[in-house]
Amino acid sequence: MIKVAILYPNEEGKSFDMDYYEKTHMPMMANFLGKNLKFYEIDKGLAGRTANDKIPFIAIGYFYCYNMSEYNEAIAKYRTAIVNDIPKYTNIQPIVQISEIRYLSK
């Protein structure tokens, strides 16, 4: 199983529409990933290391998928739709990391 993390850095002058991300973008992505998607998560940044520290990321989205090849195929197939949707909720260039899940507790 893999986990895809999409991180949206908190930078000066950047915007992020969490409502659109939750209700439109992530469900669209889940549809594109289909049965390969086990589940997804959305984090909304609240604080940094302490309550007074600036949040490092405005939001982080996660996709938990069974197969990396199938994930890559879906992203390639729907790339245009994905790229065209991003400006509808943010002007942030996301950072993406794909990881192998070595342990997942129940």
Provide a descriptive summary of the structure in words.
The chain has three helices and four strands. The protein is an alpha+beta fold. It has one domain: 2-Layer Sandwich (Alpha-Beta Plaits). It has a four-stranded antiparallel beta sheet, covered by helices on one side. The longest helix has 16 residues, at 18-33. The two termini are 15 Å apart.
Q: Strand order of the main beta sheet, please?
A: 2-3-1-4
CATH architecture level-2 label? 2-Layer Sandwich
**What is the domain total for the residues?**
1
Can you tell me the residue ranges where pLDDT is under 50 for at least 5 consecutive residues?
A: none
The helix content, as a percent range, equals 25-40%
- N-to-C order of helices and strands: EHEEHHE
Mean pLDDT: 96
Question: Gyration radius, to the nearest Å?
Answer: 14 Å
Q: Tell me the number of helical segments per DSSP (H or I, 4 or more residues long).
A: 3
CATH topology: Alpha-Beta Plaits
Would you state the CATH class?
Answer: Alpha Beta
- Per DSSP, what share of the residues sits in E-state strands of 2 or more residues? 25-35%
Question: Which word captures the global form?
Answer: globular
What gap, in angstroms, lies between the N and C termini?
15 Å
Please count the beta strands (DSSP E, at least 2 residues each): 4
Helix/strand/pairing category: alpha+beta
Main sheet?
A: 4 strands, antiparallel
Protein name: EthD family reductase
Organism: Flavihumibacter fluminis
InterPro entries: Dimeric_a/b-barrel, EthD_dom
